[in-house]
Amino acid sequence: MLLYHLNEFKSASLWPAHLWSEANNLFLNAIPFDSRTPFRRIASASNEVLERTTRIYNHPSFGIKKIEKNGKVVFVEEETIREKPFCTLKKFVRKNSKGKTIFEEEPLVLIVPPLSGHFATLLRDTVATTLIDHNVVVMDWHDARLVPLKKGEFSLDTYVEYLLEFIEFLGTEIHIIAVCQPAVPVLMAVSILAARNSAKQPRSMVLMGGPIDTRVNPGKVNQFALDHKIEWFERNIVAKIPLYYQGAGRKVCPGFIMLNGFMTLNLERHQDASFDLFLNLVKGDLGHAESHRKFYDEYRSVMDIPAEYFLDSLRYIFKEHALPLGNMTWNGQPIKPQAIKKTALMTVEGELDDISCMGQTLAAHNLCSNIPKSQKLDYVQKGVGHYGIFNGHRWRAEIYPEIRDFIIKNAT
Questions:
Q1: φ, ψ at 28 (rounded to 5°)
Q2: Which terminus in the chain has less CB density within 10 A, N or C?
Q3: How far apart are CA 288 and CA 377, in angstroms?
């Protein structure tokens, strides 16, 4: 497979244009043209679009240094509390101006980001908002290209193993929020704990826009998975990491392929967004331009996914529908969501979600048939797509309050 090499060649071939855009920027900042003149604005706008098109986007940081709670500033520090080859467990510790940890009595929430091409920082808004009322721990995924081959494979079974270890480590009284793809492994892990009658069963789990049953209201993503055999994905999507990376020889689904797939789903919208950036810069609308920068700086930052997990997800979730059909296993052990009785369940869906379409996450309620109705909640947010359920104004103003109240209700 030459996918990786071709992409590296493309990046290298565009680098001179990137350097040219940087040189242009230096020139434009040096010459005494009035920034309000049409020439200066058009030149600067064109230069920024070129720079962003040719840039290599690296792993962003969460960058959450402080939040506001009850009208007061609360400082935030990241702490690594557990380290695994493919994931770091990070805690966001809230402190006062004197450096003392505060609000430790509030519920502990484990946020599980998707392992689907983007870094966990895609959930920055999710984390920052949840921090207002909770202690937050996040599974921060590692880029597979940087994980040495000797560290072993990472499959769906490994994913669930990580979850079980982290839940055990965090102790009792925790709550889990799974965003998108991890809805399946989270439901698997909680099912295993319930079958064991473990004392570490989470108080609640919130599944947001997850592919629990992709037979329901199938969208483009679901149909594409069904239209192609596993062997097609192995031949055309999976690639080996080149020798000059730490993960040399590891088979992965490259992040740049996942990004191209995300972009293609709404290609016209992304093209319009790029042109809108140019127009906003020319008009001097810096507010909208900055919103564009923040979103696409994150959206274009991608990571490689271990091939074992990528292919397992395709096979068991999108093609065989193993979980809703009762055929899912973990290390040979049957997964039985009906065993869950002590963990409350909330599902969140977006009306316009074209990745995990309406009804696919709701299906978890039928599978978890022994959770009391009083401990179940299905919430549908009108007018938002996939990213709108965990990011943006609707998330902060409408969705999060529902999740917060659900966690509080089931905290004891």
A1: -65, -30
A2: C
A3: 35
The CB-side HSE value for 119 (13 A sphere, CA atoms) comes to 20
**Which strand (E) or helix (H) includes residue 283?**
helix 267-283
pLDDT of residue 172: 80
Q: Which of 71, 139, 75, 62 is nearest to 101 (CA)?
A: 75
Q: Which conformational region is residue 180 in: left (phi greater than 0), alpha (psi within -120 to 50 degrees), or beta?
A: left
Gap between the Cα atoms of 110 and 112, Å rounded = 6
Chain center to CA of 378: 21
pTM equals 0.87
Confidence of residue 27 (pLDDT cuts 50, 70, 90): confident
Helices (runs of H) and strands (runs of E) counted in the chain: 14, 14
Closest alpha carbon to 208 in 242, 189, 183: 183
Residue 232 CA to residue 229 CA, distance in Å, equals 5
Residue scoring higher pLDDT (53 or 354):
354
Cβ contact 87:126 at 8 Å:
no
254: closest CA among 268, 240, 243, 265? 240
Query: Terminus-to-terminus CA distance in the chain, angstroms?
Result: 53
DSSP-assigned letter for residue 279: H
Output b/e per residue, 264-297; b: 16+ Cβ within 10 A. ebeeeeeeeeeeebbebbbeeeeeebeebeeebe
Counting beta carbons within 10 angstroms of the beta carbon of residue 147, is it exposed (0 to 12), middle (13 to 18) or buried (19 or more)?
buried
The amino acid that residue 99 corresponds to is G
The DSSP call for residue 300 is T
Rounded Cα gap, residues 138 and 174, in angstroms: 13
**Taking the CB of residue 339, how many other CB atoms lie within 10 A of it?**
19
CA distance readout (Å), 54 to 14, 43, 147? 6, 17, 26
- What is the rounded distance in angstroms from the CA atom of residue 158 to the CA atom of residue 316? 14
- The mean per-residue pLDDT over the stretch 35-49 comes to 71
pLDDT tens-digit series, residues 258-278: 766 665 656 677 666 676 666
Q: Is the CB of residue 344 less than 8 Å from the CB of residue 375? A: yes
CA dist 218 and 189 (Å) reads 25
